[in-house]
Amino acid sequence: MLSCLILGGCSPLFYLLAMVLPLFSSHTLNPHEHQDHTEKERPKLLLVSFDGFRWDYIYRVPTPNFRSIMDEGVKVEFVENIYITKTYPNHYSMVTGLYAETHGIVANEMYDPALNLSFSMETDSVYDSRWWEQAVPLWVTVQKDGGRSGAAMWPGSDVLIHGMFPTQYLPYNASVSFETRVQWIIDWFSAPKGEAVDFGTLYWEEPDESGHNLGPQSPLMDAIIAGIDEKLGFLINELKKAGLYEKVNLIVTSDHGMTQLSPEKIIELDQYVDRDLYTWVDKSPVVGILPKEGKLDEVYELLVDANPNMVVYRKDNIPEHFHYQHNVRIMPILLEAKEGWTIMQNRDGPFMLGNHGYNNTLRDMQPVFVARGPAFRQNYVKTSMRSVDLYPLMCHILAIKPLPNNGSLLNVQDLLSWEPTTSFTTPTFSTVPPKVNRYSYAPVVGSFIGVVMVLGFLVVYVILVTLKQRPVLKHRSWEMSQPLLQEDLHL
Ligand SMILES: [Zn+2]
User: Among candidates 370, 58, 84, 85, which has minimal Cα distance to 255?
Assistant: First the structure.
């Protein structure tokens, strides 16, 4: 356009296109671009976890509801969750974007020598805020940003953390049905403007429980997995009935997978080390060992080469890539069973046919991940992501500034249907054609401005054409205007 102005002679049509086309660029269609963070119509996000839903369960039996989300949205084949692959550490990583050593929920069973407190998911110790406050979960950040959140049983969501509960939440009660939990979620998202939640979490205990009891290889697991798909179908239908399905971004994932155990694969610690020398803190397959005072070297030497199916780490030798070292709640000695093996003190304790917690690079430890909604691309399969990347992704979808975290939006932005360009994300490439978002007013505003500019251009164009006639009309125009002006002044 600049060259036309310099050289002259461009057609009116060219001017029109040059003015209007920029209004339809990807930036205009980005729903974050012109968002007012104080009075915004906030994007909606529901994060669902089916505990212990391994990545490949969706291929094992017909799962039409998972499939429909994949077809309408995205799927990630490899999700590397965090070490250790247990329920509490991974659920807290999903909502903080932090590895366990940083968020502090390092296991389902913990001991904190600084606090001299023990934590167990089986006791009321889970309600002690001090266990959770090394990190800030997403619902707290949403609320501090002026948004609202609702949690149906997500681990930690019924604990006061940094002075806040979720805006709406259900105290943990395993006997509350999935359908009831869904109904609460629907009610919270459907509330009138100003009361509706923006970010919801929904947790269900299966298929973890059955996976432990039956073992993932059991044919009986087929019906359990099909049942989870039906539950997902129930959620989808309820969202549709409430008019929320096209509005709410839905992420369905899990904390970990599950692997088959065998009573033939048991490591009995009593064979190698006297119980009087240590305290057993966390359970198999990654066992935290707290040696009695002055017994660290002795216990380590007794265990380090004790069994070829058990890796023994001193705390300072835990591999860096586990991100599982720098926290007082990680015990001085860590025992890690090889996949399928169980560490017990002896065979008298309860034995399970399935378990998780092993090395997070093992395929069987990894969870499912599918998502759909206005923020996500359609029918797109991504090869891999880390579960810590979920947090910056969710912050981006919710248009809030993430706290420092171990994840990266860059790693997962190809899942999005729009180009991340907010001030608190890294502006980078987008291979995705931008898509008009349902809750974006940008196209309407852009079209209106476009029409105004076109009309403005026409006025300017007419004036320019008129001025071209000026040498001919020069005297007449002044003569015509002067009396009118004078006449006006005398009125
Ligand atoms: Zn479990």
Answer: 85
Q: Which of 28, 85, 87, 253 is catalytic?
A: 87
Name which of 438, 445, 443 is nearest 24 in CA terms.
443
The share of the chain scoring above pLDDT 70, in percent, equals 77
| Cis-peptide into 216, omega within 30 deg | no
- 129-168 pLDDT tens trace: 999 999 999 999 999 999 999 999 999 999 999 999 999 9
How close is the Cα of 108 to the center of ligand 1, in Å? Answer: 10
Task: Measure CA 167 to chain center.
Answer: 19
* CATH placement of domain 43-98+135-261+359-415: 3.40.720.10
- Give the distance (Å) from ligand 1 centre to CA of residue 61: 21
> pTM for the complete prediction?
0.79
Assigned CATH for 266-351: 3.30.1360.180
Residue 453 has pLDDT above 90, yes or no: no
Tokens 């169980």, located at residue: 342
Query: Do the bridges between strand 380-386 and strand 117-120 make them parallel or antiparallel, or are there none, so unpaired?
Result: unpaired
* Cα 258 to middle of ligand 1, angstroms: 8
* Cα–Cα dist 203/381, whole Å: 24
User: In whole angstroms, what is the distance from residue 218 CA to residue 222 CA?
Assistant: 8
180 classed as catalytic: no
Supply the DSSP symbol for 366: P
> What distance in angstroms lies between residue 213's CA and the mean position of ligand 1's atoms?
10
